[in-house]
Design goal:
14 strands; binds adenosine-5'-triphosphate; alpha/beta; 11 helices; binds magnesium ion; 308 residues; elongated; six-stranded mixed β-sheet; 28% strand; Rossmann fold; Alpha-Beta Plaits; four-stranded antiparallel β-sheet; 2 domains
């Protein structure tokens, strides 16, 4: 488990991280979201050992690795949100270069590089010059590079930005494979629909603080359970409206777009549906309004309440 605790970072007079905390379980694909400037890249750079935090801790299995470069290097694979310029280097040479940085040379380095190039579907580009690759290919190469020392934790800063839909699907599959190989993945992105499909947990940050975090299904279920039930009925609504208002579990009901929007206490959906049918109300549809990650994001950021 990775536990990021109370991270603080100031740039001059600007407090970029203001006590940010996250808990990431082993095997998670953890989506890290927040508006521009929220502090995602800063957090990731601190985790990767590229930036010094003013205070706080990053625990890996209860050991604080903050400031311990060797441990950080060993555990974390960091993919930055930009790709540097690499003139006169072939894809395979690029990988071998980074292998050498981790003390691997010769046949071992070559074989591992080939394996990782295959893993990110760049097998046919092995002898291409890095600078001739498309952006999506460079991003995949960058991912291959951060796997070279077999880290257990991957920290990926917006790996899907600027990718076409097909390449994004490919990336998603690669990440799922990595998860199955036992990696834990922290991934930042602004593409919320995709994060919702890919991640099992999320953390929303705003102004350097965590606003909400946890298992996505649990969070969405909690939110949806407070949403109204939207009911369609055949014919006149007045009769149904009168009947629904009288039910004890109903907090509020009104007509919206020709349907009944019903807020109820608790989770008595089935009981309410049964009552409607028993009372000869012809129900044509009965659906709990579903929120998505975008609604959650919009309702969460910009608010001052903060989760400790
Ligand atoms: N080296 C730096 N010097 C000064 N300010 C910095 C530096 N790095 C980051 N900041 C500031 O810290 C804040 C957080 O930046 P950060 O890059 O972590 O945001 P982010 O959440 O990654 O945003 P985005 O979604 O745009 O990538 C911003 O206001 C940024 O201007
Ligand atoms: Mg960023």
């Amino acid at each position: 488990m990775i536990k990021i605790e109370n991270l603080k970072k100031r740039f001059g007079r600007f407090q970029a991280l203001d006590g940010l905390s996250l808990e990431i379980n082993d095997g998670d694909i953890f989506g890290f979201v927040g508006p521009n400037g929220a502090g995602k890249t800063t957090t990731m750079r601190i985790c990767a050992g590229l930036l010094k935090a003013d205070s706080g801790a990053v625990y890996i299995d209860d050991v604080n690795v903050l400031g311990k470069q060797n441990e950080i290097k060993q555990y974390f694979g960091y993919m930055p949100d930009f790709f540097g310029v690499y003139d006169n280097l072939k894809v395979i040479e690029y990988m071998e270069f980074f292998a050498a940085a981790y003390g691997m040379y010769g046949k071992d380095a070559y074989n591992l590089s080939c394996e990782l190039i295959e893993l990110v579907n760049l097998g046919d580009k092995k002898d291409f010059m890095v600078d001739t690759l498309s952006r999506g290919m460079k991003q995949r190469l960058c991912l291959a590079r951060c796997l070279i020392h077999n880290p257990s934790l991957l920290v990926l800063d917006e790996p899907a930005s600027g990718l076409d839909p097909k390449t994004r699907v490919e990336l998603k599959e690669i990440l799922k494979n990595l998860q199955q190989m036992g990696k834990t993945i922290l991934i930042s992105s602004h593409i919320l629909t995709e994060l919702a499909e890919m991640c099992n947990a999320i953390g929303i940050v705003d102004k350097g603080k965590t606003v909400l975090q946890g298992n996505i299904d649990t969070i969405m279920n909690d939110i949806n359970s407070a949403n109204p039930i939207i009911v369609g009925v055949e014919g006149e609504l007045d009769n149904a409206l009168r009947f629904i208002k009288e039910q004890v579990e109903v907090k509020d009901v009104f007509v919206e777009d020709g349907k009944l929007s019903i807020k109820i206490n608790g989770q008595e959906d089935a009981q309410l549906l049964r009552k409607l049918i028993m009372n000869d109300i012809s129900v044509t549809s009965f659906i709990r309004k579903q929120s998505n990650l975008e609604t959650l994001f919009m309702n969460t950021v910009g608010k001052s309440e903060v989760v400790e």
